[in-house]
Automatic annotation (TrEMBL):
CDD domains: CYP4B-like. Its cofactor is heme. Heme binds at C455. It is found in: Endoplasmic reticulum membrane. This is Cytochrome P450 4B1. Keywords: Endoplasmic reticulum, Heme, Iron, Membrane, Metal-binding, Monooxygenase, Oxidoreductase, Transmembrane, Transmembrane helix. The chain crosses the membrane at residues 6-28. The keyword Endoplasmic reticulum applies. Gene3D superfamilies: Cytochrome P450. InterPro entries: Cyt_P450, Cyt_P450_CS, Cyt_P450_E_grp-I, Cyt_P450_sf, Cytochrome_P450_Monoox. It comes from Xenopus laevis. The gene is cyp4b1.4.L.
């Protein structure tokens, strides 16, 4: 008898109780979804937008065929300033596509929306990219010295050395008379560079990508993007039970163990040397040196957990985003030969017979810099950023949004806003001349965001793009591969579904 009774309940009572509990949970969830939908409908009522499907919302329009960003940009021209997009019936965000709206948003301190960034947190922790509030402010202040120009100076030689390794590999590929897929090679190069700059780690990853840590970082980058685009994997339970979830956890352990060991050894080294100046006599100061030695006004330094989060964040942001920027810039050079020629002439005059780029050379390439900026306008490495309102906001045209609403700033659409950019699809570097900049909206071009949360590593990224472009054009002529145009893939970083292919010809060759 006792075996059929649980907590004094008979089986029929137990089943009835369980059914009632399930019903209550279903009703609770249904009420949540109903209230969420009503909130969204009210919040976005003053913003007309594209017609949505009764079940899918607008999600069914995005088919991973390389046209997703063009759809967003097309709607931006039809609904100026902003419009709502729905993923199903219970999630929607306001797509912002005008600089005036972007300025209003980025002048505030609203946190980033969890969606998208959430998948990165197991890898990069809660570092500068995802933090908000007072802790973000503390980390930003502590990290700022790591990006002073005196720290960035010696990085230029490391960047040049890593670029030359990649170009030497391309030299060997020319004889095969096949187009080169840029993103793979450039990504390994920027990974090599960032590891040397972040913690003086010479990985040789461009020749040996079988190193466990290299494989782990590469694997994590791929899996985060894959999870972002695979809707079932948005559920933690489904993802962690999947083969991809197993691969993610395995790579995560390798990456975190490596970062922890490097931090532990460097702490011991700095403790024995006592002073940072003694270390600087032996080699350049890297990102980790600065993080370990920096303290706030109260003498507090970063915890081990915070240290790892910031190093891993720097690895992600300084590797994938810069690889995207460089790859698309080289693609533009191949596609627009008249601008490639002008850049090469400028680079030839600056470098002469030198086979490297020095710090002082970076400021002597104005036209090359304009071309990089125009490439970033057309193909922003981060195609959009999200914010979640902590307080209501009223925009320049009088329309408002309540607290709790989510906004997605489409940098891709803002960079093509027809009321700001004349002939926005045309590649025209002179848009960024001093004369034209003086007349333009301050938030019309946001490759590194803006306001207090702008990208802390933007000078690092621009330096690496200049170095790589200069050394590439010094050695090669770039040509497009018309039969294999890249299909844009708007993930956390602007990638493609089919690679970015160009043809190379050695300068001075046949």
């Amino acid at each position: 008898m006792a075996s059929n009774v649980l907590f004094g309940l008979f089986p029929t009572q137990l089943y009835s109780w369980a059914a009632s509990l399930c019903l209550l949970l279903v009703l609770y969830k249904a009420t949540q979804l109903y209230l969420r939908r009503r909130f969204l409908l009210t919040a976005f009522s003053s913003f007309p937008g594209p017609k949505r499907h009764w079940l899918y919302g607008n999600a069914h329009e995005f088919k991973a065929d390389g046209k997703e960003l063009d759809i967003i940009d097309g709607y931006a021209k039809k609904y100026p300033y902003a419009y709502p997009l729905w993923l199903g019936n219970f999630y929607a965000s306001l797509i912002v596509c005008h600089p005036d709206y972007a300025k209003a948003i980025l002048s505030r301190q609203d946190p980033k929306d969890d969606f998208g960034y959430y998948f990165l947190i197991p890898w990069i922790g809660k570092g500068l990219l995802v933090l908000s509030g007072q802790k973000w402010f503390q980390h930003r202040r502590l990290l700022t010295p790591a990006f002073h120009y005196n720290i960035l100076k010696p990085y230029v030689k490391l960047m040049a050395d890593c670029s030359k390794v990649m170009l030497d590999k391309w030299d060997n590929l020319i004889g095969e008379e096949k187009p080169v897929e840029l993103f793979h090679h450039v990504s390994l190069m920027t990974l090599d560079s960032i590891m040397k700059c972040a913690f003086s780690y010479h990985s040789n990853c461009q020749h040996n990508s079988e190193n466990e840590y290299i494989k782990a970082v590469y694997e994590l980058s791929y899996l985060v993007d894959h999870r972002f685009t695979c809707l079932p994997y948005h559920n933690d339970f489904i993802f962690y039970l999947s083969p991809h979830g197993f691969r993610f956890r395995r790579a995560l352990k390798v990456a975190h163990d490596h970062t922890d060991n490097v931090i532990k050894q460097r702490k011991k080294s700095l403790h024995e040397q006592k002073e940072l100046e003694k270390l600087q006599e032996k080699r350049h100061l890297d990102f980790l040196d600065i993080l370990l030695c920096t303290k706030d006004e109260n003498g507090n330094s970063l915890s081990d957990e915070d240290l790892r989060a910031e190093v891993d964040t720097f690895m992600f942001e300084g590797h994938d985003t810069t690889a995207s920027g460089i790859s698309w810039t080289l693609y533009c050079m191949a596609k627009y030969p008249e601008h490639q020629q002008k850049c090469w002439e400028e680079i030839r005059d600056v470098l002469g017979e030198k086979q490297t780029v020095d710090w002082d050379d970076l400021g002597k390439m104005p036209y090359t810099t304009l071309c990089i900026k125009e490439s970033l306008r057309l193909y922003p490495p981060v195609p959009g950023i999200a914010r979640k309102l902590t307080q209501p906001i009223t925009f320049c045209d009088g329309r408002s949004l309540p607290k709790g609403a989510v906004m997605f700033l489409s940098l891709y659409a803002i960079n093509r806003c027809p009321s700001i950019w004349e002939d926005p699809e045309v590649f025209d570097p002179m848009r960024f001349s001093a004369e034209n900049l003086a007349k333009r909206n301050s938030h019309a071009f946001l490759p590194f965001s803006a306001g207090s949360r702008n990208c802390i590593g933007q000078n690092f990224a621009m330096n690496e793009m200049k170095v790589t472009l200069a050394l590439t054009l010094q050695r090669f002529e770039l040509y497009p591969d018309p039969g294999n145009e890249p299909l844009k893939a708007p993930e956390l970083v602007l990638r493609t579904t089919n690679g970015i292919h160009i043809k190379l010809k050695r300068k001075g060759g046949d």
